[in-house]
Amino acid sequence: MMLGSVVVGIGIAGCVRMRDLLAPLPSSTAEKFSIRGFVSRRNLEDQQGVKQISTTEALSRDDIHAAFICTENTNHEEYIRQFLEAGKHVCVEYPMTLSYTSAVDLWNLAQQKGLVLHEEHIELLTPDFKQLKKDIAGKTLEEGTLHFTGGSLKRNFGFPSFSGIARLTWLVDLFGELTVTAASLVEEKENKYMKMTAHLLTRQQKPLTWIEERGPGLGRAKHIHLRFQDASITELPAGQREPVGLFMQDLVLFGRKLQGEVSAAELQEERSRILHCLQLADRIQQLSENTQA
Ligand SMILES: NC(=O)C1=CN([C@@H]2O[C@H](COP(=O)(O)OP(=O)(O)OC[C@H]3O[C@@H](n4cnc5c(N)ncnc54)[C@H](O)[C@@H]3O)[C@@H](O)[C@H]2O)C=CC1
Ligand SMILES: C=CC1=C(C)/C(=C/c2[nH]c(/C=C3N=C(/C=C4\NC(=O)C(C)=C4C=C)C(C)=C\3CCC(=O)O)c(CCC(=O)O)c2C)NC1=O
Ligand SMILES: [Zn+2]
């Protein structure tokens, strides 16, 4: 059976989703999707030959089974809830929500309804990350820093521990569950500049620092300083480029979940990681807001 799909939010991510749905990876679960329309709060002409439909139509049509939520982050929660309540599977661009408790609610709703709730994590699929993970396998961490820089985000992307949750996901995927010991935020609104610093500890009580820095003219980059018992890594390794795009890899994974090809254990592990990261993001926000006041 084909999985009728709708893309919600026509920014960079939404357009890429549409492109991938229109030209799925051959012989993959991505071929099971069939795009039926897109939703936008603007009135748009056809996009890549796909027609705009209303949210009401997307929620009520029997031939629509899945929604791709690609709006700015402040709207994710409301759209996810509406589509789950309407009985549709959901793939949402990270971060799923801007609070831990709302994410727990949504996972519970998906479970009650027997629906797949999938959060995109292309940062785990990048060649550089795959290589880094291989390079540090078996090494014992002493301390580390992950410093992200990037251009200013538009409004409505949420607190930086949420908009930048991809970086936190890296740290948790590499070093396991973490705790937050301190966090602060420096913001210069008039300069569109911000720098968040979070201090974390691994289960083995090793310190990790996560810095998320954004401002006009800052290039999108990650700096790492990882010190292990017998080695240091101070540069991201360049992984082997892959023929399949990142969003397409994520689409295939979502498709595999819908086809029941992902084991319950794997689903549980992923859900735990996602909720753990959102919980850390929540804690970082709380601690930062306390230091600001
Ligand atoms: N661009 C990328 O490479 C990646 C993006 N994401 C996530 O995808 C999501 C969307 O990001 P982008 O597409 O890059 O952002 P974007 O700024 O290009 O698009 C945001 C979306 O919101 C819509 N929008 C915002 N305010 C609106 C308003 N007032 N009225 C009508 N429409 C409005 C835009 O048209 C667009 O659909 C975010 O959750 C982001 O974190 C995740 C991974 C990678
Ligand atoms: C060119 C302008 C450009 C914009 C506006 C952009 C936006 C953008 N990229 C993101 C993540 C991401 N973006 C990319 C990669 C890309 N994303 C792309 O739009 C393109 C062209 C690539 C390059 C192939 C990746 C891999 C992530 C996941 C997080 C990360 O690893 O940084 C996010 C989510 C929040 C974040 O993690 O920062 C946004 C809003 N990315 C860009 O590169
Ligand atoms: Zn640095």
TrEMBL record:
Keyword NAD set for record: yes
Gene Ontology CC annotations of this record: cytosol
EC number of the protein: 1.3.1.24
Superkingdom, natural source: Eukaryota
Reactions accelerated catalytically: (4Z,15Z)-bilirubin IXalpha + NAD(+) = biliverdin IXalpha + NADH + H(+); (4Z,15Z)-bilirubin IXalpha + NADP(+) = biliverdin IXalpha + NADPH + H(+)
Cofactor(s) listed in the protein's UniProt record: Zn(2+)
Cell location: Cytoplasm, Cytosol
Main subcellular localisation: cytoplasm
Residues the record lists as binding NADP(+): 40-42, 94
Any one Pfam family match given in the protein's UniProt record, by short name: Biliv-reduc_cat
Keyword Oxidoreductase appears in the UniProt entry: yes
Domain Biliverdin reductase catalytic intervals: 129-239
Cofactor note: Binds 1 zinc ion per subunit.
Gene Ontology biological-process annotations: heme catabolic process
Top-level EC class as recorded in UniProt: oxidoreductase
Keywords for this protein: Cytoplasm, Metal-binding, NAD, NADP, Oxidoreductase, Zinc
The protein's annotated pathway: Porphyrin-containing compound metabolism; protoheme degradation
Domain spans labelled Gfo/Idh/MocA-like oxidoreductase N-terminal: 6-121
Assembly notes: Monomer.
Function: Reduces the gamma-methene bridge of the open tetrapyrrole, biliverdin IXalpha, to bilirubin with the concomitant oxidation of a NADH or NADPH cofactor. Does not reduce bilirubin IXbeta. Uses the reactants NADH or NADPH depending on the pH; NADH is used at the acidic pH range (6-6.9) and NADPH at the alkaline range (8.5-8.7). NADPH, however, is the probable reactant in biological systems.
Protein name: Biliverdin reductase A
Source organism (scientific name): Sinocyclocheilus rhinocerous
